[in-house]
Write a structure and sequence with these properties.
The structure is a homodimer of 166-residue chains. The first copy, chain A, is built from 5 helices and 5 strands, in the order αβαβαβααββ. With 166 residues, chain A is α/β, with parallel strands linked by helices. Chain A has a single domain, classed as Beta-carbonic Anhydrase, Chain A (3-Layer(aba) Sandwich), CATH 3.40.1050.10. Chain A has a 5-stranded mixed sheet, covered by helices on one side. In chain A, strand 1, helix 2 and strand 2 form a beta-alpha-beta unit. Chain A is globular. Chain A starts with a helix and ends in a 5-residue tail after the last strand. The mean pLDDT of chain A is 96. Chains A and B meet through helix 1, helix 2, strand 2, helix 3 and helix 4 of A and helix 1, helix 2, strand 2, helix 3 and helix 4 of B.
Chain lengths: 166, 166
């Protein structure tokens, strides 16, 4: 049995007792979370989110790429989310490499140098502020309520990062 | 109390009983999941994932944007994930608008026309195939094992989509 088959077996169990079929698309808490893809992070569990509560955007680092901004704009425009919660974390893989090294590895292996940034960063708290600054700079993002945090993977605890102008 | 304060109170409870502090960054199941930010989807619950099991990438639609490809490449290169699981879903907001209408709305309100695509799509299963095709076309993504699904928000059940060449 492959890893994916294992996940599908879990889905059968989930569906057997599923009772959320009447939920609508609008997040009940009016929140959109932007966080890292890291396997140790389960934002639904560490933020107490049930199905239907919040939009959750995740990428490598939890950074405000154009794609994250695209997703935030859609969240705000389609269903009117009012709060943005940014969560980076301790021990993030994004602190373990540089864009230059990653591109060198890829060009050596494939012959092609990526034209996009890998968004590596040396400091999680500083990058939370950078992420908030990018969102603030977008002409398309509404700025009702933005807060940023670093999640400690050793304690499970969120630590707030003071945002510029926040 | 704001919605974010409410999430922080939940985090206090989560951290109080947290016992996963020894986990490492490498996903135990070797899987990276690419899915939609929709609030009704809790991929950890519907795939039976515990903290530490899998990378989870989420954006509006669960589409293979450059940012999702960036995240997949980092997942594969940094910690060696071997399987990609694509999950779109029924009733997706991406089926409810067009890129042209979204851009018209934004230019009318802000005076600025976005230079990026919003990635709206009319059919979830077709877009799962499109997402897989984009991943397959990337020179930077390894292609050990890719499967695609549409998650039914009314039943909680995954339905597999046959992928071209899969």
């Amino acid at each position: 049995m492959t890893a994916t088959d294992d996940l599908l077996a879990s889905n059968q169990r989930y569906a057997a007792s599923y009772d959320k079929g009447a939920l609508t698309a609008a997040p009940a808490k009016g929140v959109v979370v932007l966080t890292c893809m890291d396997a140790r992070l389960d934002p639904a569990r560490f933020l107490g989110l049930e199905e239907g509560d919040a939009h959750v955007i995740r990428n490598a680092g939890g950074v405000a790429t154009d794609d994250a901004i695209r997703s935030v704009v859609i969240s705000q425009r389609l269903v009117g989310t009012e709060s943005i919660v940014i969560v980076h974390h301790t021990g993030c893989g994004m602190e373990s490499f540089t864009d230059a090294a990653m591109k060198d590895e890829l060009v050596a292996e494939t012959g092609i140098r990526p034209s996009f940034s890998f968004e590596a960063f040396p400091d999680a708290a500083a990058d939370v502020r950078q992420t908030a600054a990018r969102l603030a700079a977008s002409p398309f993002v509404r700025h009702e309520h933005v807060r940023g945090f670093v999640y400690d993977v050793e304690s499970g605890r969120l630590h707030e990062v003071a945002l510029d102008g926040g």
